[in-house]
Design a protein that fits this description.
Elements: H1 3-12, E1 23-27, H2 31-42, E2 46-50, H3 54-75, H4 80-92, E3 94-97, H5 100-103, E4 109-112, H6 118-131, E5 137-140, H7 147-150, E6 160-164, E7 174-179, H8 185-197, E8 201-206, H9 213-229, H10 235-245, H11 252-259, H12 261-274, H13 285-292
Helix pairs in contact: 1-3, 2-3, 3-4, 9-11
Length: 310
């Protein structure tokens, strides 16, 4: 499927959907954070992108500009001037900051997209809880940690939830909206409306490990690794089986390499620590071995398969 075509369809109707959330602060300037900032600005919202590293912010702004340029060429291929206006206006809605506290003082919504470390997330939200306006909603983009545990340190638990985007954010249409144990109905509705305003298809999930997608996907990948580890089938045959037998666009071991074997290990290790009796979450010696050898998948040139570095 043409990715730009997906982006074009997503945002062709976003202006018709109005959200009560107008000022968004995104904490974390990496791939996920910059992607969230892009789609919010593209939907007409004012965005503050925060990262303590100024170089990361500069890289994020350049990436967003390039991405918007590609979208504009597709959307306005017969009207380059309108395309330039589209890019200019969207970029004009994004400002950057290196201090999360000052960057969140006028936010209607703060979306955290930083490292998957609960202690660091706790430190961040404790600071923000003291300075953000009373109406501000806090959300985490975590993919593997508990939303309830992340939000345990804030007083506004009724205004805390999860907004789990998928990479690359401008292309992937799904948004998992996670309701914490104390998330209010008003907060939940605001998060759902905001996601729809970005052109996303929103689903709702309780705070369960991995939410919907990763709760199904990570054990599936883990079982494929165990199948290969036992010598029951080759990596190629496992992937071919799932592509031709189940209609999946990628096989599980291809997908593991794409996601990153270190990421798969990190999620499994975290779940195993919390749920030690769950067999599906038990460590996998082969996965641990590959990660220890620096064979993390596509990003390092080798995982279950070898890749030519461009």
């Amino acid at each position: 499927m043409n990715q730009l075509g997906v982006i074009t369809r997503q945002f062709s109707c976003s202006s018709a959907v109005q959200s009560a959330i107008k000022n968004v602060t995104v904490i974390g300037g990496g791939l996920m954070g910059s992607g969230i900032a892009q789609v919010a600005a593209q939907a007409g919202q004012n965005v503050t992108l925060v990262d303590v590293n100024g170089d990361i912010l500069a890289k994020a702004q350049k990436s967003i500009g390039n991405n918007l340029g590609r979208v504009a060429k597709k959307m306005y291929k017969d009207n380059p001037q309108e395309g330039e206006k589209f890019v200019s206006e969207a970029m004009g809605r994004i400002k950057t900051a290196t201090d999360p506290v000052s960057g969140s003082q006028t936010a209607d919504l703060v979306v955290e997209a930083i490292v998957e470390n609960i202690d660091i997330k706790h430190q961040l939200f404790q600071k923000l809880d003291q300075v953000a306006p009373d109406h501000t909603i806090f959300a985490s983009n975590t993919s593997s940690l508990s939303v309830n545990e992340i939000g345990a340190v804030v007083k506004r638990k009724d205004k805390f939830g999860g907004l789990h985007f998928f990479n690359p954010v401008p292309v992937m249409r799904l948004l998992e909206v996670v309701r914490g144990a104390e998330t209010s109905e008003t907060t939940y509705r605001s998060m759902m409306d905001w996601g729809k305003a970005l052109g996303k298809t929103c689903i709702t999930c309780k705070d369960t490990p991995g939410f919907v997608v990763n709760r199904l996907l990570v054990p599936y990948i883990a079982e494929a690794i165990r199948l290969f580890e036992r010598g029951d089938a080759s990596a190629e045959d496992i992937d071919i089986a799932m592509k031709l037998g189940a209609g999946y666009p990628m096989g599980p071991l291809e997908l593991a390499d794409y996601v990153g074997l270190d990421t798969n290990k990190f999620i499994l290790d975290g779940w195993h620590k919390k749920y030690p009796d769950q067999q599906l979450f038990k460590p996998i010696p082969l996965l641990n071995k590959l990660v220890s050898e620096g064979k993390l998948g596509v990003k390092t040139g080798e995982g279950f398969y070898k890749y030519e570095k461009k």
